[in-house]
Structures are given as C-alpha cells and as structure tokens.
C-alpha cells in the first residue's frame, strides 16, 4: 500500500462499489482538482494523481507487481467491480503532487546509497544546483522518510507514522542517523510539464468501465450459473438420498410394493423435486396415505407418515 | 332317499354363517377404501343370495330366481374387486368412488329383477338352470380369484394386508369346494331339486347306484358352505384388526 501524506481530506473510506469511476473522474476534472484519489482494495491498492483537473498519473499496486497508466485504470475498474474496496480523496498542493509523482513514477538518480558512505551535504548542494524537482527517500529496514524538493529546495518532510507533511526535518534526520540507512534520489518533470499529460484525454475511461462491467457481469453470471449448477447437483443429491430414505421407510411399513408407491407418487408430482414444495409434499404424503390404507393399519400409517414428514423436514 | 333331504338344518346354519359374514363385510365396506367396497359388497350379496332359505316367501319361484341371480352377481362383483386390487398392487393407482360401486350393483340387481319379472314365471327346471349357471360362474370365478389372490399376495408380500389375502384364498378354496360339489351333483342330476323332479315324473334316478359319492359330495357342499361362511366372517374380522 502506498504511504502518502493526506493533505486536505475531501472524502475518506467511501465504499468503492458506490461510485461510478467515469463520473467521478469527470467531476474531478471539471472541478480542476489537485491532489490524489486513493483506492484500497482487499488485494490491491491504487492511486490517481490529479493536477488542476488533469489525471497525470495512475498506479495500481497488487500482488503480482505494479501497473500504471491505462492498465492501472483498467485494473482499478476490475477491483471496484470485484467489491470490498474503499476510496479516499485528498487535496494537495501542486508542488506536493509533483513530489509524490516523483516518488511513484520518477527517474531514479541514485538508488540505495548508504548514507554513511556518501557526502550528504555535497549531495544536497548538487540537488540545489541542479534545481531538482523530486523526492529523496531515506530508509532503513524498518523506517522511511521522504523529503520533497522543488527546484532544489525542500518543500516538506514526510515519514511513516505521520499523516501529513511536516516542516521539521528532525524525524528525517533521525532516520538518516540510524545504522544501515540508505537513500534514493528520484527526479520528476516540473509541474507545468507534467500537466501536459492528461490520462483522461488519452484513455476512454467510460469504455474501459463499460467493458470491465460487461466482463465482470459475464464472470458474475458464469459464477452464478456454476454456483447454481453446484447447488442443483447438491440439491439433487440430497433429494436422491431423501427419496431412498422415504422408500426405505415405506418398505418397512408396507412391504416391498411401497417402493413403487413412492416412485408413483413422486412421478405424479413431477419427480423428487416436488419435495421442495410444501404443498406438493402434503399432496405426496396424502397420496401415500391413501394407498397405504389398502396395505396396513391406520396406526402404522400414521406412524409412517409422521416419520416421513420429519425426514423431509430434516433434509429440506 | 333320506340323505337327499337331511341338509335343511345345515343350510340354515350356512345362512346364519353368511349373515354374520355379510354384516361384517358390509360394515367393513363402509369404513374402508373404495377398492374394498366391491369385495365387501360381493360377500354381503352372498348372504342376500342365501337368505331365501329363511324367507317365508321362499316358495315364490321368481324370488328364488332373483336370489340365484344375486348369487351370480355377488361373485362377479367380488372378482371385479380383486381385479381392482390387483391393478392397484401393480400400478398403485387408487381411484373411483364408493357410490358408483353401490349404485352399479343396485342397477344390475334392478335390471335382473326386471328381467325375471318380464319373463314367464320360472318352473323348477328353469330355476335349476339358473342355479347351475350361478354355480358354474362361482366355480370358474373362484379359480380366477384364487389366481388373482396369489398374484396380489406375491405383489404385496411384506405388508400387513398380505396375510389378509391368504385368509381370502382359504375362503375361496372353501367356496370352490362348496359350489363345485353343488355343480357336480347338478351336472349328474343328483341334486335334491332334480331328485324331486324325477320322483314327481316317475323316472328312475342313478343316485342310489352312486350313493357314496353323492353322499360325499353333499357332505363337502354342506360343510364347505358352512366353512366358507365362517372363514369369510373370520377373514373380515381379521382384516378389520389388520387395518385398525
């Protein structure tokens, strides 16, 4: 899951199943939204970065790796339809969006440099000179801190456990001082340049949504049919066992001829599935009782019918 | 010739036995499934057919003819009942209504009465012919019923009612002996009616020459008649207990 500063929360933990993604994206576009939308699904998480209503980045992180752009949006649609996800919308400054973009999509200038072995002051000086737009990630095995830069100057500090950007560098310095601390330097394009990209213009989210919906519906229908078939098979098995048991009860009270009697009474009512219906079960037992009067005593018939009734009630 | 006239007391015992069986069977038909109605009514009609021996107007030939016809109807109705039960045992189908059975029997008897009344008054010879037809029908249908009962028993073996059909099988065995012995005597002209007729017209009879077999046949007829009445009554009591 992406650990990101929250900025100004607009919506938090809204059930993802309630939203129509194309409509929501259109609204954010029309409102000139700057910030990010974060989805948390049971088996994935994703984030959409907006700058002045333009969707500059989409990223989906799931078990089998990360996806971005069109694939990320398509994956998001699938996860929304699968259900169980939630959505949060946070407003951020334009510069911070740029920093977060760097974190997720930026070019890696330095990777996993051990802080002990490098000249940090020199590095920072270099970034200032290069007017870096991007992000420094300082981390150990257990802790991470982010420092966002715009044109070589720090915008703010963020670390795990925090909810928002801080102005103090103390926590970042603490992590940098831990044994084994490393640093990544990621750069991105300036905000103006990033705004030249708008995934909403490049991707037909509506179509993507519809096709995901169609695919999901088809899958759901397939699953429903499979479940129904499974249920029918299971029900048939239960009914078959029930029929055998009813025959055994009837044979115990009426002799072997009762096997034909049960067969006949069930066939007259459309087969053993009639035992699923209360009224047809009553008719079935009535038919058995009527014929049984020609074969045994009233007291035995009553006992047999009661046994059959409880057997049916216990199974259905 | 005394042995030919010594059975009136036995006949009266037979009627009493059939009265018992008739009442039980009629009571049984009221409280049970329709398939039993034909069988029960058949047994009840045997009593009706035998009742003429007790009736003070027994000497009316037309009434006697009607009794014989009712006797014929009774075995036909019973056979119909057993046939229906056999069909039930094979198909498990239970249908029809009791009133249809009652009214059909009444209709057949009414038709028979009309038939007797619109024809000339039956003479002793005609009455004997009607009685022979009755006995022939009984003997033939007894065999049919015993076979039907055997098949029904095999079909419903294991049910409480199966033993009831064994009892009915015994009843029909007695009836077969009763009616069969009667028919045998009639066919050879050794029955009491024919002996009276021969005596009246002065024609010699062969009965004396076959005294042993005539006596044996009459004894079989008398005792099988009593036993069939008793066994029929007993069977219905047994059935009543089985179905209670």
Largest sheet of chain A: 6 strands, antiparallel
Rg from alpha-carbon coordinates of chain B: 19 Å
Q: Assign a percent range to the helix content of chain B.
A: over 70%
- Total helical elements of chain A: 11
Can you describe what's shown?
The complex is a heterodimer of chains A (316) and B (244). Chain A has 316 residues and is an alpha+beta fold. Chain A has 3 domains: 1-92, no CATH class; 107-187; 212-315. Chain A is built from 11 helices and 11 strands. Chain A has helices at residues 21-30, 69-82, 94-105, 120-130, 170-176, 191-194, 199-202, 205-254, 257-268, 278-292, 298-315; strands at 8-15, 35-41, 44-51, 54-62, 65-68, 86-91, 107-114, 134-139, 144-150, 153-159, 182-187. In chain A, strand 4 and strand 5 (65-68) form a beta hairpin. The longest helix of chain A is centred in the last third of the chain and has 50 residues, at 205-254. Chain B is globular, with a radius of gyration of 19 Å. Chain B has helices at residues 8-31, 34-50, 61-91, 98-118, 124-156, 161-187, 192-201, 211-243. Chain B is an all-alpha fold. Residues 1-7 of chain B have low confidence and may be disordered. The interface between A and B is medium-sized, with 20 and 22 residues.
